[in-house]
Amino acid sequence: MGTSLAIGQHKNLYEFWKLKLTTSLNKELKTEDFLVNLASQEYFSVLDSKKIIIPIITPEFKDYKDGKLKMISFFAKKARGLMVRFIIDNNVQTIDGLKNFNSEGYRFDDNLSTGNQLVFTR
Fold first, then answer.
1. DSSP 3-state of 120
2. Single pTM value for the model
3. d(Cα 102, Cα 23) in Å, to the nearest integer?
4. What is the mean pLDDT of the chain?
5. CA angle 114, 118, 122 (to 5 degrees)
6. How much of the chain exceeds pLDDT 70, in percent?
7. Which pLDDT score is estimated for 6?
8. What residues contact residue 83 under an 8 Å CB cut-off, 6+ apart?
9. Contacts of 37 (CB under 8 A, 6+ apart)
10. Which positions of the chain have pLDDT values less than 70?
11. What is the helix (H) or strand (E) element at residue 98, kind and residue range?
12. Residue 7, pLDDT score
């Protein structure tokens, strides 16, 4: 996605795909649904999140390092994959169900989380 590639009138792949993918996704969604964003920021940027018609829940995975809480990309990427597996294996259907994720030492942190941003720490 980061490749600088012009396609017709579009200056890059994000411009080319954004409207098409957002429109297509919205057609598939039901008002009672929610979308779990486990993509990297690079790939999630291909959607126009302001135009998504349902809540977008974005889990964040943070580690304590040197006494501070940090998002370490290598571990966060692995944790996103583990959460996908958790959702599938447990047939998670609710936002509260997502909060039960507890793999590789990560646990839901209610104090750091906000409405649509679920923070998991270890």
1. strand
2. 0.87
3. 34
4. 94
5. 120
6. 98
7. 87
8. 36, 38, 59, 98, 101, 103
9. 44, 56, 57, 58, 59
10. 1-2
11. helix 95-98
12. 86
